[in-house]
Amino acid sequence: MVTAPAATPPLDLPGLDPRFSHIIAVPGSGADAGLTHDWHYLDTGAELARLGVPVIGTILAVHGNPTWSYYWRDLLNQSLSAAEAGAPAWRIIAVDQLDMGFSERTGIHRPLAQRVSDLSAFTATLDLTGPVISLGHDWGGVVSLGWAVDHPAQLTGVMLLNTAVHHEAGKPIPAPLRLARARGMLASSTVRTPAFLETTLALTTDPLDAAVKDAYRAPYRTADRRGGIGGFVADIPADASHESFPELERIAEGVAALDLPTLMLWGPRDPIFSDYYLDDLIERLPHANVHRFEGAGHMLAEDAPYAASVLTWLGDNAASITDPGSSALSPREAFAAAAGSVATGSEAAGTHTADSEASATNVSGSAATDTGADAASFVPLWHNLDARRDDTATAVIDMSTRGSRGPQQVSWKQLADRVSEIAAGLTAIGVRKGQRVSLLVPPGPTLTAVVYACLRIGAIIVVADAGLGVKGLTRAVRGSWPDYVIGEAPGLAAARALGWPGVRISTARLPKVSDAALGVSFSLRDLITLGVSTPIPAPPRAEDDAAILFTSGSTGPAKGVVYRHGQLSALRDVLAKHFEVTADTGLVTGFAPFALLGPALGTRSVTPEMDVSAPRTLTAHAVAAAVEASGASMVFLSPAAILNVVATAADLTADDRTELERVRTFLSTGAPISAELLTAAGTVMPNAIAHSPYGMTECLLVTDLTLDGIRAAAGDANTGVCVGTPIGDNLVRISALDSDGVATGVPSTEPGVLGEIIISAPHLKDHYDRLWLTDRAAVRETGIETDAATPNAGDATNAAANQPLRWHRTGDVGHLDEHGRLWVEGRLPHVIVTSTGPIAPVGAEQDVEGVEAVRRAAVVGVGPHGLRQAVAVVETIPTAKRPGLASPELTTAVRASTTLPLVAVLVVPQLPTDIRHNSKIDRSRLSEWAERLLAGGKPTAP
Q: Is residue 282 within 8 Å of residue 288, measured between CB atoms?
């Protein structure tokens, strides 16, 4: 390698303040002993001193390959701006590693141990004292962690962007690195040409600005400046024979013993440091706050607001970072306490036991303490299944599986036996408490047995609805990074083709050639055989994580919602109590989330004949057949399913109608629906009390309203959809919107106030999986108005558990009326912020839907924020042939129907809806489409 002295960067690089640039001579160490090398680095210290603000600590930022300290420019700029505005000042030091950036080209081989030693020599020369937080990306993450492990007296926190400290033996390194390291390719791709550099700069979600891309190239213009790039690639320890492997192992072991505040920010679309490496880091640092920026990739600092996230985290953790001994519990201890773990000192030192693996699942950063049920009175979800294990009566019916003897029926005894057999088999193959099991099985007896088997041994079930589509499912499965995947052949084929992680288990025994093609290791039959002599472990506790349920994705990428066992049991209890479910009730479950609750409730359940990923495939006859087969008196359906049930009611036979007359309770769950649709469904089930509960994946039951209640509310002067009053001990508050459409008001029960809906419930989710920032934004811990007359609200605590209530910001907007009923008026992102204030869309949409020629309507905003104008987009009767401007007659009628000024009325053949519910209108998409159309764009479908 050619040697070259250190240099300062050009003065005109975008975003880089020349005042930050410094060069320092550092004595060499290791192979460099006796030599001195010049380092280039960026440092905000001098500017902070000029401002005269006290510095509370230092962030030591280390870039990866083939970037340089420029990668951290946003953090330097934003931290200095924050200090100028009066925020606590953090000094940022971003180094250029030797042979990289504008530091000296040494001509000396620098393996990992040497680079860690180099960094120590650099900080010693700066006389850097604590508190210091290490920050690293790519292979700079490994080097920064090496420094962290070696400097416990100075270190008070750790921050990481996409990186790794361990690579499983026998697992190939990522394909891009294999290609770069291939014989004859290394020098050509990394040194002689800028191919490796240019490939890395292309790993952003959106193309980098040309000037920014050129700034990254600035230190590497010629081959003699790129030797360090090739050196880094050559130093990747692909296996135990590599010289840097022992140092990597040493660092990995040291990382598992770190007991300090930790932040991990991740770009999932990284072809090098995938979620596989994130999962390993979480096992080593289970207490870390983790956030995956969906859509971001390897160059996370260019794809996501990492700097703002870092500063937010520093503010949240200021006390524990600047004074590590100030808390009674260390970060690991605090996490273990919140997660209900019994972590021992050996686990804190990095010994990965079954319980320590369980700890790795709660990484949202919300140290929730209320498990949704008092641990002393906790009754597990499988209690009623155990209680009926000798009962030969029917427990589960699958109408979609029709053999020569009709639908598949499973008794309580058969189900309990199968649950125990699968639980033992899973244990036999190594599934442990806290490990994740992704389920790609449609509702029915098999899924039911697998779910309860996993829950019984403490494995965490990962459930992502097939309605999310291939992309959504891939995001969900890869984001949760399961240890095992159980599925039918189509799901396993997708898992193989799309590279989903996890040991694969097929529900049916497949031919050996199919097993090999799908990468299947076991079948459920294999598990039953293997588990014959295997005891089932002790059951999990109320505070242990139980399930990750993915949201519909109707308002952005689907999020993994984590429930603990206590919260799932609380859901069962509130459902049973409010709807008076008994062993004789029986459930027809055309809405997937509730299809698994029959055994928990101790009542038989049936999945009707339908495609559960497409609710519109359910017919009225299928509901009648399911009622006949099960004798059920309660029916759960989604709004989209109800639409088709009503549409196909004319096909019902006299016998079908007789069967449907035995239904006593009917629930529409998933989204609020109109009184007209609920009434129409009531004609199909004439003796049923119709309910329309309001809820979400984060809290499946919040409020409830009967059809009679909807009719009673119809005459009130309220806008939106009335969803009733809170169920059981649930609480609802409203945080008023300000003039900018932001929910800033103190949450209260004051009637008539438009704002964000905030809820609390015993069965409220625990946290979002690996989405620290999302969870942080959704959790409202303080400032909630309480009412001594409201159960459990007098002192903002759960009286039973004597714990602070957990509150969730739903993202929905609405208001409470004088009777305490909740009215939903849309989603927070869909609020139209006009010059006169915020407007929720649903009220105006209801007005427009009163026009005779309108089937459905959406009201969206166009124009700049704060000056937006309202536009109505409608489906017409008869259906419009093409999208575009409404006729003058329809425009006049629509405008006359509402007091909201409409700048335009547009027609579409069909309003776009989310994939899963087929009922929630995608207003964000419509808004963008309307702006394009009104600006003269082509009248294509939205």
A: yes
